[in-house]
Amino acid sequence: MKKTELLQLIDQDLLDKLFGFCYQRTASAHAAEELCSDILFELVKAGNSEGEIEDEMAHAFLWRIARNVYADYSNRRHREVDRAATGDPETLFALLSDEEDTAAKEAAERDRETLKQLYRRIANLSHAYRAVTIAYYLDGKSIREIASRLGLTENTVRQRLFSARETLRKEVTNMETTQKPVTLRHLELVLWGNGNPVTGDPRSLIERQLSRHILWLCRKQEMSAREIAEELNVPMIYIEEELALQARGVGETRYATLCKLPNGRYISNIPLLSREEFLEGRAIYEGHHPALCDKIQAFLRDPKIAKAHFSFPYLNHAPTLDLIWWQHLPVLAYKLGDMVEELLKDKYFADVTPDERPFHIFGYEATGIPVSFCGWDGVSAKNICGYREVYLENLYTPHLAHHFHCGHDVGNDAKLQLAIRAIEGLPVSELTEDEREQAARAIECGYLMREGDTLYTKILVMKQEDRERVYLVDHDFRDQIRPIAEEVAEKTAAWIRSVLPAHLLPCYQMVARLASTSIVEIIFDDMVHRGLLELPERGIGAEGCWMSVEK
Q1: Strand pairing category for 272-273 and 359-365
Q2: From edge to edge, which strands make up the β-sheet containing 387-396?
Q3: CB-based contacts of 462: which residues, under 8 Å, 6+ apart?
Q4: Where are the extended beta strands (E) located within 366-408?
């Protein structure tokens, strides 16, 4: 007979006999009821335990439990009698020692701590084992009920319970030596995006520290949920939930940060570099920045190039060469990175098919590294201020503030609308009082300039059809920096293969882009230091901002 079948033997006849057994051995019916309840509690516990007994020994087993409970009851009663005394209660209370009470409290506290740790160990079991353990021990379900609810065989449930008990027994036994606090250090990651984020941008999934640490552990090696939980000392229940979230992904492409492998383990789906790896790649470009800046300066100051830049058919009332150089400098600065990517594709990674995701994220650990961004963002607006389409672009660096970012609503930006209306000149007399106030702000931020009673657009303006043609004059710069690009490409290829795991090699272009991020900032700062560029007084102005329009 299985012990779980013992509960079927507890009928009214047995209950009457148990009460009689207790009544004969206690001083009152109340005490007998209390003792009988204790015996029934132990009988139910035994009936919910694993194991088997011989059928003919079942009743003997039940009465042995009853006698053991009575023995414990008798010992407690004798201890209480030994402590009993007569006399004035206040006097006696003052003479009593609290040693036993203190010991009892300490024992109870230890039990509570052990139970708390046991619950924590249960939470550290994987979902399959955690589910049967909770159902059996905490919910009081039978093996048959658990098997039916989970769609498992009874043998499978027994095996999982056995394995879970062994795991818990070992961990509770070694609790004192294995216990350690959860320590998630602050992990600062810089994550770049490239492409169309509408298709799916999983950066929103890794804003929490737990998410970042899991991704960090899996960035180069596959890991199981158990290994991650042990490494971070975080209960499995949280790790499994987080892994499911990261592997599910976001957006129409279900872009996920982690891949779940056929063996049930996980590995990163995005390139993520350590601080040291990132700095090593960045040093490749930074080592060539003085020579690159010399090339840029000589190119922009070449009279033939300067004349070509200045003669471009801008629509402004009075464009300046300084503003024109701000427009061309990022093209020249990014040209080295573009050439390196081309060389990587054609020469060093010709055997690797680049990942064609509509949107990529990639990044690095930024702990201890000053984080600064140089960006080039654009926004468009249709049927606004008398134009069929307007496309606006602006640069931003650590020293040059942005006017807008991608997705900016031009229709609700009064200053930008005034800049569009003032392309061919806007008389001040035509402005309302509210528009006059907005015009003053537009002048302050560099969108407008005033000559007499007319406002003109200060930022560069060109026709939409000329937008691609404006940079044609810079094409010759490629030949001048080709030796630099070839040397950087060779070093970058070796660096990429040393930092990227094999399954992420198709993302090599994104990692190459990480290495070149700082060079643009360095070039801007160097050009300002050399006097080729001039920063606006308050960090924001017409510098680095332009638009193209279509009637």
Answers
A1: parallel
A2: 375-384, 387-396, 545-550, 460-463
A3: 312, 313, 314, 315, 470, 546, 547, 548, 549
A4: 375-384, 387-396
Amino acid code (one letter) for 345? K
Domain ranges of the chain: 3-95, 99-178, 189-270, 275-313+327-371+475-539, 375-466
Range 297-301, long-range pairs (CB < 8 A, 24+ positions): 297/527, 297/530, 297/532, 299/332, 299/477, 299/480, 300/325, 300/328, 300/329, 300/332, 300/532, 301/532
Distance CA 376, CA 546 (A): 11
Q: Assign a CATH topology to domain 99-178.
A: Arc Repressor Mutant, subunit A (1.10.10)
> What contacts 278, CB < 8 A, 6 or more positions away?
364, 365, 369, 514, 515
Distance (Å, rounded) from C-alpha 123 to C-alpha 185? 22
Amino acid (one-letter) located at 447: Y
**Closest CA relative to residue 520, chosen from 280, 279, 334:** 334
Q: What is the pLDDT of residues 122-155, one digit of tens each?
A: 666 777 777 777 777 667 778 888 888 888 888 8
For residue 90 the two structure tokens come to 């206040």
The 8-class DSSP code of residue 381 comes to E
The upper half-sphere exposure of residue 113, i.e. CA atoms within 13 Å in the direction of its Cβ, equals 9
Which residue bears the tokens 């040209």? 335
Residue 93 pLDDT: 45
Interatomic CA distance for residues 258 and 272, integer angstroms? 12
Burial of 383 (0-12, 13-18, 19+ CB in 10 A): exposed
Helix axes 303-310, 289-300, angle to 10 degrees: 70
| Cα(387)–Cα(360) distance, integer angstroms | 34
Within this chain, domains 99-178 and 189-270 share the same CATH topology: yes
| Contact call for residues 138 and 128 (beta carbons, < 8 A) | no
Q: Does pTM surpass 0.70?
A: no
* Contact between residue 206 and residue 213 where contact means Cβ atoms under 8 Å apart: no
CA distances, 123 to each of 120, 133, 189, 296 (Å): 5, 10, 29, 61
Count, in order, helices (H) and strands (E) of the chain: 21, 12
Amino acid at 71: A
Q: What is the CB-side half-sphere exposure of residue 491 using CA atoms within 13 A?
A: 18
Report CA torsion sign: 26, 29, 34, 39: positive
CATH code for the domain defined by 189-270:
1.10.10.10
How does pLDDT run across 295-330, given as a tens digit for each residue?
999 999 999 999 999 999 999 998 999 999 999 998
Query: Residue 273 CB: number of other CB atoms within 10 A?
Result: 23
